[in-house]
Amino acid sequence: MNINLTLFGEMITFAVFVWFTMRFVWPPLVKAMEERREKIAAGIAAGEKGLRDLELARHKVTEIITEAKAQAAQMIEQANHRANHIIEEGKAKARVEGDRLLGIAKTDIEREYHSAREKLMDQISSLVVTGAEKVLQHEVNKSANDRLVSEMIGAL
Predict the structure, then answer these.
(1) What is the reported pTM?
(2) Is the N end or the C end of the chain the one with fewer CB atoms within 10 Å?
Protein backbone atom coordinates (compact mmCIF):
# COMPACT_ATOMS: atom_id res chain seq x y z
CA MET A 1 0.00 0.00 0.00
CA ASN A 2 1.33 3.35 -0.98
CA ILE A 3 1.03 6.26 1.32
CA ASN A 4 0.79 9.31 -0.78
CA LEU A 5 -0.83 12.68 -0.78
CA THR A 6 -4.19 11.30 -1.83
CA LEU A 7 -4.37 9.28 1.31
CA PHE A 8 -3.62 12.37 3.39
CA GLY A 9 -6.19 14.36 1.40
CA GLU A 10 -8.78 11.68 2.01
CA MET A 11 -7.91 11.62 5.73
CA ILE A 12 -8.20 15.39 5.98
CA THR A 13 -11.50 15.35 4.06
CA PHE A 14 -12.78 12.56 6.31
CA ALA A 15 -11.71 14.48 9.41
CA VAL A 16 -13.45 17.64 8.12
CA PHE A 17 -16.53 15.57 7.33
CA VAL A 18 -16.53 14.06 10.87
CA TRP A 19 -15.95 17.51 12.44
CA PHE A 20 -18.75 19.04 10.32
CA THR A 21 -21.10 16.17 11.14
CA MET A 22 -20.27 16.38 14.86
CA ARG A 23 -20.65 20.13 14.88
CA PHE A 24 -23.77 20.71 12.72
CA VAL A 25 -25.56 17.42 12.00
CA TRP A 26 -25.09 15.39 15.16
CA PRO A 27 -26.57 17.83 17.77
CA PRO A 28 -29.96 18.18 16.00
CA LEU A 29 -30.08 14.39 15.55
CA VAL A 30 -29.25 13.84 19.22
CA LYS A 31 -31.74 16.50 20.21
CA ALA A 32 -34.47 14.91 18.05
CA MET A 33 -33.67 11.45 19.46
CA GLU A 34 -33.73 12.83 23.01
CA GLU A 35 -37.10 14.51 22.41
CA ARG A 36 -38.44 11.29 20.89
CA ARG A 37 -37.12 9.29 23.86
CA GLU A 38 -38.77 11.73 26.26
CA LYS A 39 -42.07 11.50 24.34
CA ILE A 40 -41.92 7.72 24.37
CA ALA A 41 -41.07 7.70 28.10
CA ALA A 42 -43.92 10.14 28.77
CA GLY A 43 -46.28 7.99 26.71
CA ILE A 44 -45.25 4.85 28.59
CA ALA A 45 -45.62 6.66 31.92
CA ALA A 46 -49.04 7.97 30.86
CA GLY A 47 -50.04 4.47 29.79
CA GLU A 48 -48.92 3.02 33.12
CA LYS A 49 -50.70 5.82 34.97
CA GLY A 50 -53.80 5.14 32.87
CA LEU A 51 -53.61 1.44 33.77
CA ARG A 52 -53.27 2.31 37.47
CA ASP A 53 -56.21 4.73 37.19
CA LEU A 54 -58.21 2.08 35.36
CA GLU A 55 -57.45 -0.46 38.08
CA LEU A 56 -58.42 2.08 40.77
CA ALA A 57 -61.61 2.83 38.87
CA ARG A 58 -62.38 -0.89 38.66
CA HIS A 59 -61.91 -1.22 42.41
CA LYS A 60 -64.09 1.83 43.04
CA VAL A 61 -66.76 0.48 40.69
CA THR A 62 -66.66 -2.86 42.50
CA GLU A 63 -66.97 -1.09 45.85
CA ILE A 64 -69.82 1.10 44.58
CA ILE A 65 -71.64 -1.91 43.13
CA THR A 66 -71.20 -3.83 46.38
CA GLU A 67 -72.44 -0.84 48.37
CA ALA A 68 -75.38 -0.37 46.00
CA LYS A 69 -76.29 -4.06 46.33
CA ALA A 70 -76.13 -3.76 50.11
CA GLN A 71 -78.31 -0.65 50.04
CA ALA A 72 -80.77 -2.34 47.69
CA ALA A 73 -80.91 -5.39 49.95
CA GLN A 74 -81.45 -3.11 52.95
CA MET A 75 -84.22 -1.23 51.11
CA ILE A 76 -85.88 -4.50 50.15
CA GLU A 77 -85.63 -5.70 53.74
CA GLN A 78 -87.15 -2.45 54.98
CA ALA A 79 -89.93 -2.69 52.38
CA ASN A 80 -90.65 -6.28 53.41
CA HIS A 81 -90.63 -5.28 57.07
CA ARG A 82 -92.99 -2.37 56.33
CA ALA A 83 -95.25 -4.63 54.26
CA ASN A 84 -95.39 -7.17 57.08
CA HIS A 85 -96.14 -4.38 59.53
CA ILE A 86 -98.95 -3.07 57.30
CA ILE A 87 -100.34 -6.59 56.93
CA GLU A 88 -100.28 -7.11 60.70
CA GLU A 89 -101.99 -3.74 61.22
CA GLY A 90 -104.63 -4.74 58.67
CA LYS A 91 -105.16 -8.07 60.38
CA ALA A 92 -105.50 -6.37 63.77
CA LYS A 93 -107.99 -3.85 62.37
CA ALA A 94 -109.90 -6.67 60.68
CA ARG A 95 -110.04 -8.61 63.96
CA VAL A 96 -111.32 -5.55 65.81
CA GLU A 97 -113.89 -4.85 63.11
CA GLY A 98 -114.88 -8.53 63.00
CA ASP A 99 -115.30 -8.61 66.77
CA ARG A 100 -117.38 -5.43 66.63
CA LEU A 101 -119.59 -6.83 63.86
CA LEU A 102 -119.86 -10.15 65.72
CA GLY A 103 -120.96 -8.28 68.84
CA ILE A 104 -123.56 -6.35 66.85
CA ALA A 105 -124.78 -9.57 65.23
CA LYS A 106 -125.01 -11.32 68.61
CA THR A 107 -126.95 -8.38 70.03
CA ASP A 108 -129.32 -8.43 67.03
CA ILE A 109 -129.77 -12.20 67.30
CA GLU A 110 -130.42 -11.97 71.04
CA ARG A 111 -132.95 -9.17 70.50
CA GLU A 112 -134.67 -11.15 67.73
CA TYR A 113 -134.64 -14.24 69.96
CA HIS A 114 -136.28 -12.38 72.85
CA SER A 115 -138.79 -10.74 70.49
CA ALA A 116 -139.71 -14.10 68.95
CA ARG A 117 -139.91 -15.68 72.40
CA GLU A 118 -142.25 -12.94 73.62
CA LYS A 119 -144.44 -13.33 70.52
CA LEU A 120 -144.46 -17.10 71.00
CA MET A 121 -145.39 -16.71 74.69
CA ASP A 122 -148.18 -14.31 73.72
CA GLN A 123 -149.48 -16.80 71.15
CA ILE A 124 -149.19 -19.74 73.54
CA SER A 125 -150.93 -17.85 76.32
CA SER A 126 -153.62 -16.77 73.87
CA LEU A 127 -154.05 -20.39 72.74
CA VAL A 128 -154.10 -21.63 76.31
CA VAL A 129 -156.75 -19.09 77.23
CA THR A 130 -158.78 -19.99 74.13
CA GLY A 131 -158.39 -23.66 74.89
CA ALA A 132 -159.37 -23.15 78.49
CA GLU A 133 -162.45 -21.20 77.37
CA LYS A 134 -163.50 -23.99 75.04
CA VAL A 135 -162.96 -26.57 77.74
CA LEU A 136 -164.95 -24.54 80.21
CA GLN A 137 -167.74 -23.88 77.72
CA HIS A 138 -168.34 -27.56 77.25
CA GLU A 139 -169.21 -29.86 79.97
CA VAL A 140 -166.48 -31.63 81.79
CA ASN A 141 -165.99 -34.80 79.83
CA LYS A 142 -162.78 -36.79 79.65
CA SER A 143 -163.03 -37.76 75.98
CA ALA A 144 -164.11 -34.25 74.91
CA ASN A 145 -161.26 -32.71 76.92
CA ASP A 146 -158.74 -35.09 75.33
CA ARG A 147 -160.13 -34.28 71.87
CA LEU A 148 -159.86 -30.51 72.54
CA VAL A 149 -156.31 -30.87 73.85
CA SER A 150 -155.39 -32.87 70.71
CA GLU A 151 -156.92 -30.14 68.53
CA MET A 152 -154.97 -27.47 70.45
CA ILE A 153 -151.73 -29.44 70.04
CA GLY A 154 -152.48 -29.78 66.33
CA ALA A 155 -153.05 -26.03 66.10
CA LEU A 156 -149.62 -25.35 67.63
Answers:
(1) 0.44
(2) N
